[in-house]
Model the fold of this input.
Amino acid sequence: MTVLNHRVQHWNGPSVSLSFGVGYDYLFFMSKPACPMCEMNEVLDHPEKWECVTCGHEWERTPEPEAAAGPRVVKDAHGNVLADGDCVVLIKDLKLGGGNQVLKGGTKSKPIRLVDGDHEIDCKMDGMAIALKACFVKKA
Done:
């Protein structure tokens, strides 16, 4: 069983002892690579390279994979691509979070606006401004 003990000294206060159980030391080295020469996990993180604490070997960092530069594609429940200004129809009844209201399946929206986040669609239905997930609508 591996236990790490740390003492933290606050400005003018008492020291605090923190103990972490098994597996905590694994979390420290999870994102760092192992040394290609000695295969140890104790490496230093420099901006442009990695350095092994054990053998002193230095190697270049691999570049981070770049995110897709293209526009975000939002598809409805049937796989049709949605765009700003499209109208959508609910494919099933949806309960609204704040009360006992329900939006019925088949309700048509006003023109939509696509936004970032897990609720990709902002629109108005039955006079209410709501955010919807694209998997609950189809293109009208």
